[in-house]
């Protein structure tokens, strides 16, 4: 097929129809990215538990709804289950001395079997919006976007408030400078356990929302979640620093993290619209993350080069 024939086969109307669905799913991934932001930026810990805890949230929410409970109760169960998963990772890391990345891998590995047990040893569980009262549904995208924005706003406000409290500040201090935090009397082990629990609780909450939105929970729904979450965090940070030359407000940074999830999934929608092989989607994700990771590096290098050039110019004039 020629290039002209290829582009003529693409339907712009189809792309526009798919964009709202991308925004709805992107909001859910953005919520998950808020959980990853806690460990990746605030605690400075690489936590790989999220691939499992995202599925745990979806599995718990699905089984709660199938058992006759409401969607909010299902999300509460997902949140608690995710916090327990993060608690396990935290205890493995702090009490047994296992490095954080390995502790996350161990918990994620164990969660695969646990998630199967939660779903009654079934690989997936279906949730029909016609039979059950779901909070979000892909069949009602405008409503899903509105509710997703509302949940994101509430979660950003809660995180902004909590990490401004004494306990939340202790978690941030632990990630910023563990030695100084210990010298100030902060129990950094407890702060790490608490941070990991909160992080995975938010991730599992997003998993519960995703299960309701897509109408099923699947044992592999969390595969690659850590990469997507990191992509959202990094995209949000790059945009934040591009628009604001200096640090403005923690709540704005959290909002940009959610926006990063939306932008990431819109890129996915465009990739699928271009009729590229969906099997290469993870490759494109890795390329996107690498590009956004490289932006701050090249920007800082250019700034240093500019300053160095100015100094040489001043010296030459002198």
In short:
This protein is mostly helical and 318 residues long.
What series of H and E elements makes up the topology? HHHHHEHHHHEHHH
The helicity comes to: over 70%
Cα distance spanning the termini: 63 Å
Provide the CATH top-level class.
Mainly Alpha
Radius of gyration equals 21 Å
Which topology does CATH recognise? ABC transporter involved in vitamin B12 uptake, BtuC
Q: Average the pLDDT over all residues and give the rounded result.
A: 88
Describe the structure.
- This protein starts with a helix and ends with a helix.
- The protein has 318 residues and is mainly α.
- The model has no long low-confidence stretch (mean pLDDT 88).
- The longest helix has 37 residues, at 281-317.
- A two-stranded antiparallel sheet has the order 1-2.
- The protein is globular.
- It has helices at 3-8, 12-42, 50-66, 71-94, 100-118, 141-162, 166-176, 178-183, 188-214, 225-243, 250-273, 281-317, and strands at 124-126, 216-218.
- It is built from 12 helices and 2 strands.
Q: Helix and strand layout, with pairings?
A:
Elements: H1 3-8, H2 12-42, H3 50-66, H4 71-94, H5 100-118, E1 124-126, H6 141-162, H7 166-176, H8 178-183, H9 188-214, E2 216-218, H10 225-243, H11 250-273, H12 281-317
Antiparallel strand pairs: 1-2
Helix pairs in contact: 2-6, 2-9, 2-10, 2-11, 3-4, 3-5, 3-9, 4-5, 4-9, 6-11, 7-9, 10-11, 10-12
